[in-house]
């Protein structure tokens, strides 16, 4: 059962309709097998790209869909409900375009963005390193200026789409030592750059249809025109994108939880014990009710943050709250879905055990939930102003 | 070239469809959509347009209730250029003859070289409207095409029959119907959704077409659904266990009893 939604425009409703059509006919039938065989569905991203779904939150003039986050995130949720590896992939792609869209020069945007948003290309994002995850300033990958180029050396860990992407948004150190926040710069590196290679994909617990690999930079030469922002602005660009990326993961996690709830409800309506459907036993119905409350809470929380972003208000804390709530709730809901299906839920014949494995990583990536709590705690310590904001009406063309 | 595609707004075939008390299709209780079989017609029209000169225009035409604009809009989102929606309370309950009358009169008001239809609707399922249209318009009817090509004034199709595969061709203007084997319909893109908002859709009534309300609708229908019964629930299959070598004969007997062999 797809979720009931309130959308700001008719075109947004049509967009969700299109996404449901694509998800039902093209994604859902393939998810289980691709996940079981650890096959990255590159063609699915081409399909989504042709439908215009890989550039939704970006301006129309560069080939994007000019949709508010309120709408874009609900699209991500719908995709995540059927196939979270693809939902995560769409979010990562959007994140990989973020630096260029927000910090690139007009010339850079005109040159690179339309292809990145138009659907044929798939992006990836290189921030973490084996020794620099939650603390990205600890990174040691170097970008050394050499004439009109930079030369990159080092390794980037946990790269979603690593080895499959067409371009990589890479944070590397142009000055300073590991731990220095100011010496990091941001580069847009094409996949075919000489010296750029991907390790074998990680053998993960879940999201096995999404390739995750360490990217190795061995003297990779990148023209200076592919540097985004000024030297030293890289970490700022990366962190600015992360707030939006966290909203993306919150939406995908909400979709994952919705998908697990749908499976659990369908099963509970069919399965009978003691002469009636198990959904008619109060003890089981209460489990399902708590799952529904968790899903609705997650959705409301990420949408509240998205509407702040769409209004141009600060939303960093709310993004962390959304990521924390949605992914913790997804973990709980998917675990309970396994419980509702009982022994069958624990088998690989039903998808809920996979959902449970997929939920776990959402508490870890895009900032662990401990980091989210740190962000929220720091905001509390600083004391947020109790502002009142009147909603600006969106333009609907 | 001017192409008109006839599309029908039907109850979602995947939903639990029902009839009203008067044995007409329940169009309120079930979500409606563009008939999937007509999506193939839209797709073929768009493919023909893609291969033709730039001035080729695809007009999508639907006769149906208010909500049928959804079907027109979906076709516009897929890439059709403009829409015509004929809506009139008097049309409710029309049979295929009356439907073809309204369609034909509407088509006469639209510039057309080629009229494209699906093979049948997913609700009525009679599949007779394309032939009726060709008769009413006085043009050839080239029906049930599974592969379509247009060269100059000639439309050529492959029709897959039970016993033979036929190649049929006709000269424009003509009515073409296409099957569900003619090629998967494209998905709209988000850009298509946005563009469709700006495409013109005209709404016509029977009087705009000069059609007498008394010649359409339930009252004028030549055929009436007298009664309907829900299909009985599926029964358990028969399991043949081969214990003494009689299994093969049992299977053959079963298939023969169902006239499969």
Computed CA radius of gyration of chain B, to the nearest angstrom? 21 Å
Q: What is the CATH topology assignment of the largest domain in chain A?
A: Butyryl-CoA Dehydrogenase, subunit A, domain 3
Helix content of chain A: 40-55%
Number of alpha- plus pi-helical segments of chain B: 7
Number of helical regions of chain A: 10
Structural class of chain B: alpha/beta
CATH superfamily of the largest domain in chain A: Butyryl-CoA Dehydrogenase, subunit A, domain 3
Number of strands of chain A: 10
* Overall mean confidence score, pLDDT of chain B: 92
**Biggest sheet architecture of chain A:** 4 strands, mixed
Shape of chain A: globular
- What is the first-to-last residue Cα distance of chain A? 31 Å
Largest interface: A-B, 14 and 11 residues
Strand content of chain A: 5-15%
Q: Look at the structure and give the mean pLDDT of chain A.
A: 94
Instruction: List how many beta strands of chain B DSSP finds.
Output: 12
Oligomeric state of the chains present here = heterodimer
Give Rg of chain A in angstroms: 21 Å
The total number of structural domains of chain B is 1
GO molecular function, one term (chain B): electron transfer activity
InterPro entries (chain B): ETF_a/b_N, ETF_b, ETF_beta_N, Rossmann-like_a/b/a_fold
Keywords (chain B): Electron transport, Transport
Function (chain B): The electron transfer flavoprotein serves as a specific electron acceptor for other dehydrogenases. It transfers the electrons to the main respiratory chain via ETF-ubiquinone oxidoreductase (ETF dehydrogenase).
Explain what you see.
The complex is a heterodimer of chains A (397) and B (261). With 397 residues, chain A is an alpha+beta fold. Chain A has helices spanning 10-36, 42-50, 69-82, 84-103, 106-118, 234-270, 282-310, 316-345, 352-362, 369-382; strands at residues 123-126, 142-146, 149-160, 167-173, 184-190, 196-198, 212-223, 227-228, 272-273, 276-277. Chain A contains ten helices and ten strands. In chain A, helix 4 runs antiparallel to helix 5. In chain A, 51% of the residues lie in helices and 14% in strands. Chain A folds into three domains: 10-117, Butyryl-Coa Dehydrogenase, subunit A, domain 1, CATH 1.10.540.10; 123-234, Butyryl-CoA Dehydrogenase, subunit A, domain 2 (Beta Barrel); 236-386, Butyryl-CoA Dehydrogenase, subunit A, domain 3, CATH 1.20.140. Chain A is globular and about 80 Å long. Helix content of chain B is 27%, strand content 23%. Chain B is built from seven helices and twelve strands. A seven-stranded parallel beta sheet of chain B has the order 7-11-6-1-4-5-12, sandwiched between helices. In chain B, strands 8-9-10 form a three-stranded antiparallel beta sheet, with no helix packed on it. In chain B, strand 9 and strand 10 form a beta hairpin. The model of chain B has no long low-confidence stretch (mean pLDDT 92). Classes of the chains: A alpha+beta (397), B alpha/beta (261). The interface between A and B is medium-sized, with 14 and 11 residues.
């Amino acid at each position: 059962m797809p979720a009931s939604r309130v959308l700001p425009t008719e075109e947004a409703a049509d967009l969700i309709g299109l996404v449901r059509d694509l998800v039902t006919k093209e994604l859902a039938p393939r998810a289980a097998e691709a996940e079981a065989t650890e096959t990255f569905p590159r063609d699915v991203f081409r399909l989504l790209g042709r439908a215009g779904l890989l550039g939704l939150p970006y301006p129309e003039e560069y080939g994007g869909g000019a949709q508010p986050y309120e709408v874009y995130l609900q699209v991500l949720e719908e995709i995540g409900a059927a196939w979270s590896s693809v939902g995560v992939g769409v979010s990562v792609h959007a994140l990989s375009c973020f630096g260029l869209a927000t910090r690139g020069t007009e010339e850079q945007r005109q040159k690179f963005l339309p292809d990145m948003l138009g659907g044929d290309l798939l992006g990836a994002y290189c921030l973490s390193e084996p020794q620099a995850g939650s603390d990205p300033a600890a990174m040691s990958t170097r970008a050394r200026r050499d004439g009109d180029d930079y030369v990159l050396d080092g390794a980037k860990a946990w790269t979603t789409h690593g080895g499959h992407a067409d371009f990589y948004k890479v944070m590397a150190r142009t000055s300073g030592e590991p731990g220095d926040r100011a010496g990091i710069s941001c580069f847009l590196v094409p996949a075919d750059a000489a010296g750029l290679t991907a390790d074998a994909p990680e053998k993960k617990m879940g999201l096995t249809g999404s390739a995750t690999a360490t990217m190795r930079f061995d003297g990779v030469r990148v023209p200076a025109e592919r540097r985004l922002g000024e030297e030293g602005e890289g970490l700022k660009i990366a962190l600015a994108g992360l707030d939006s990326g966290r909203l993306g993961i919150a939406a995908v996690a909400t979709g994952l939880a919705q998908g697990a709830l749908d499976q659990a409800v369908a099963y509970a309506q069919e399965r009978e014990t003691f002469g009636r459907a198990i959904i008619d036993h109060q003890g089981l119905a209460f489990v399902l009710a708590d799952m529904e409350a968790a899903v609705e809470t997650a959705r409301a929380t990420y949408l509240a943050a998205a509407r702040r972003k769409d209004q141009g208000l600060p939303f960093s804390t709310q993004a962390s709250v959304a990521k924390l709530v949605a992914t913790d709730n997804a973990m709980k809901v998917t675990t309970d879905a396994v419980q509702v299906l009982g022994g069958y839920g624990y088998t690989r014949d039903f998808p809920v055990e996979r959902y449970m494995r997929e939920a776990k990583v959402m508490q870890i990536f895009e900032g662990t939930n401990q980091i989210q709590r740190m962000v929220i705690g720091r905001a509390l310590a600083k004391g947020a102003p109790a502002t009142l904001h009147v909603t600006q009406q969106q333009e609907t063309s | 070239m001017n192409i008109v595609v006839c599309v029908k707004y039907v109850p979602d075939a995947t939903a639990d469809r029902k009839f009203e008390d008067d044995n007409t299709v329940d169009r309120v209780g079930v979500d409606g959509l563009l008939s999937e079989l007509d999506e193939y017609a839209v797709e073929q029209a768009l493919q023909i347009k893609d291969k033709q000169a730039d001035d080729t225009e695809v007009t999508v035409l639907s006769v149906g209730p208010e909500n049928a604009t959804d079907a027109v809009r979906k076709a516009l989102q897929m890439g059709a250029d403009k829409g015509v929606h004929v809506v009139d309370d008097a049309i409710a309950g029309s049979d295929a003859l009356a439907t073809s009358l309204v369609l034909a009169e509407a088509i006469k008001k639209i510039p057309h070289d080629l009229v494209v239809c699906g093979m049948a609707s997913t609700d009525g399922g009679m599949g007779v409207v394309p032939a009726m249209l060709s008769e009413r318009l006085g043009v050839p009817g080239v029906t049930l095409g599974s592969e379509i090509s247009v060269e100059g004034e000639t439309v050529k199709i492959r029709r897959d029959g039970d016993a033979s595969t036929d190649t049929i061709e006709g000269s424009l203007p003509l009515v073409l119907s296409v099957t569900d084997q003619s090629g998967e319909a494209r998905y709209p893109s988000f850009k298509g959704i946005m563009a469709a908002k700006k495409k013109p859709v005209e709404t016509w009534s029977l009087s705009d077409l000069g059609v007498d309300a008394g010649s359409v609708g339930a009252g004028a229908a030549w055929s009436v659904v007298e009664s309907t019964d829900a299909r009985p629930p599926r029964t358990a299959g028969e399991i043949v266990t081969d214990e003494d070598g009689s299994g093969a004969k049992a299977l053959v007997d079963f298939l023969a009893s169902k006239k499969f062999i």
